[in-house]
Amino acid sequence: PAADPAAGSAVKAADRAHVFHSWSAQGLIDPLPIAGAEGSYFWDYDGNRYLDFSSQLVNTNIGHQHPKVVAAIQEQAGKLCTLAPGFAVDVRSEAARLIAERTPGDLDKIFFTNGGAEAVENAVRMARLHTGRAKVLSAYRSYHGATAAAINLTGDPRRWPSDTASAGVVHFWGPFLYRSPFHAETEQQECERALAHLEQTIAFEGPQSVAAIILETVPGTAGIMVPPAGYLAGVREICDRYGIVFILDEVMAGFGRTGAWFAADQFGVTPDLLTFAKGVNSGYVPLGGVAISAEIAATFDTRPYPGGLTYSGHPLACASAVATINAMAEERIVENAAEIGEKVIGPGLRAIAERHPSVGEVRGLGVFWALDLVKNKETREPLVPYNASGAANAPMAEFAAACKRGGLWPFVNMNRTHVVPACTITEAEAKEGLTALDEALTAADAHTH
Ligand code: PLP
């Protein structure tokens, strides 16, 4: 693409005049103006092209500007842009069918939302009404969204400034062997101790007061901690024992990211409620939702469900979901994510870890990987302190800048970089990104001792 720096400057000036950005001190940010995107790449107005190893916010699973999805949105726009949620609409029914056919077990009813946080809000509401109980248990090192209940369920520092209405939310520790909260030495020990800790938390909270346990099947932004074998099955068993609703949040893990339609299937568990968003239509139009079990759906057969949204099941969003899911099936995109992860990204990252003193651990599956960056491999001291900002975060900022100079757009969170490209990424693109990452990690190595 031809460079047009003047156009880029105008876009940025207009942004700075009127756009109020998420999660940011408005006077301290410098948003990069973007001219376009296609497949695994996007580019700015200065002629720089970036390989997108972040999939934006880990949502463009099908890549940028997939022609079938673009065409479906255009076609739907010409036919019927919007309609209230109370009507039956062909594309909404079809999207619900395609999703329900892929969700695990008997999760066959779909409540549509505009995104992930609203999906979590509604899942929690359903669980509380279904059980008549108030408390919801969630994990530290988690992210569930930025609306009232979802941010309080979140187990990372994004919760702190909004932690005023956390009534009914109790946090516990999930398994994470590399930084084990249980001083475990093996995955099996970590699994057993994490389950015992969860059960004890429930006992001390009072099982009769716990409506739901919500977990990310594979925690995403908090560090891509693949759960040890048996952990999720153990949580399922605990939920069954105490009549607690099991909610799996697959907003980030679902729709191909882990190399399966849903990560729950890879771990052999069926939750009672499953939240999704992001990859359902790669974010081309805002969409999320809750997949609901037969038993919970039956609770609202004769009793009205007290929740709704003007744009629930929006036709443009549903048309893009139908096209996305069909394209993913036709083009074997989920299979590609699994294969690239197993054959290229996983081995590539492990080789990189051997070359760099700053890479403490490589973990992940599919196109869902994290590098845990450390000052020292022996002590595992994180490259930057937990929730560091400003000067304390300089090593990560330098690493991210080095990636960008090398044409790679990284996903960076605290002391980690995540390798989360599109599920459509080719072997050549993945190798190009790994080479750029390998070079950029030299900037992190400079801070090791
Ligand atoms: N749940 C998980 C696991 C997420 O990763 C996210 C967003 O990153 C959310 C919920 C919130 O989704 P949204 O930003 O669409 O509200």
From TrEMBL:
A Pfam family in this protein?
Aminotran_3
UniProt entry tagged with the keyword Secreted: no
Family annotation (InterPro entries): Aminotrans_3 (IPR005814), Aminotrans_3_PPA_site (IPR049704), PyrdxlP-dep_Trfase (IPR015424), PyrdxlP-dep_Trfase_major (IPR015421), PyrdxlP-dep_Trfase_small (IPR015422)
Database matches in Gene3D superfamilies: Aspartate Aminotransferase, domain 1 (3.90.1150.10), Type I PLP-dependent aspartate aminotransferase-like (Major domain) (3.40.640.10)
Q: Which UniProt key words apply to this protein?
A: Aminotransferase, Pyridoxal phosphate, Transferase
Domain of life, per the record? Bacteria
Molecular-function GO term, any one: transaminase activity
Tagged with keyword NAD = no
Q: Which PROSITE patterns match?
A: AA_TRANSFER_CLASS_3
Q: Which family does it belong to?
A: Belongs to the class-III pyridoxal-phosphate-dependent aminotransferase family.
Per its record, how is this protein called by name?
A: Aspartate aminotransferase family protein
